[in-house]
Design goal:
Order of helices and strands: HHEHEHEHEHEHHHEEHE
Strand order of the largest sheet: 3-2-1-4-5-6
Strand content: 15-25%
Number of helices: 10
Number of strands: 8
Shape: globular
Structural class: alpha/beta
Radius of gyration: 18 Å
Largest sheet: 6 strands, parallel
Distance between the termini: 37 Å
Amino acid sequence: MKAKTTPRQSRRRFLQVAGIATTVLLFQALPRVSRAANADKFKIGIVGSGRVGGGIGSVWVKAGHEVMFSSRHIENDKALATKLGANAHAGTPREAATFGDVVMISVPYGALPEVGKDLESLIKGKVVIDTCNPFVWRDGEIATWARQKGAGLASAELLPGARIVRAFNAIGAARMSTAYEEPGRVGMPIASDDAEAIAVASRLIREIGYEPIVI
């Protein structure tokens, strides 16, 4: 007897197929970008090397990329870089933004306006992975504004000129850097209006074990 499919199983299967189809169509439309992205390793600047930025950046170092960590506590960044080896570096946020071909910003949302003003000229035209989530209880009025506007649109306004990809926003920090242990088992929702930026971010996301799902 054939087992019945529950509504929950059908919905899960639909989301999996839809996500895979979207990603396949995107990469079919961008063959040159995909090949170029896989040609070599990136320099990645991390602005905010806490549990998310530090964890993800560490796995990118292990994947062979050069990563510069930065935060308000450079001594912690230096210790992390020393632990990770020659491909890891420590610097100021401005140095990390200058260093990176790709920049990941992982700070409390309340700090994003200041980061955007300070780094505007350095991140203009670069792929910027935005992991910042607006929490009203932590970030106050700016979080309320961002949630009403939509976090992606709000981040684009606060980081003008950057080629933003929203990613690493839907999984808890404690699990963020462990997906490489079982690659491809966990989907990572990502969003952007820049197809080339999506292609670059998707490659980096896959390299640390997630399957990017464009939403």
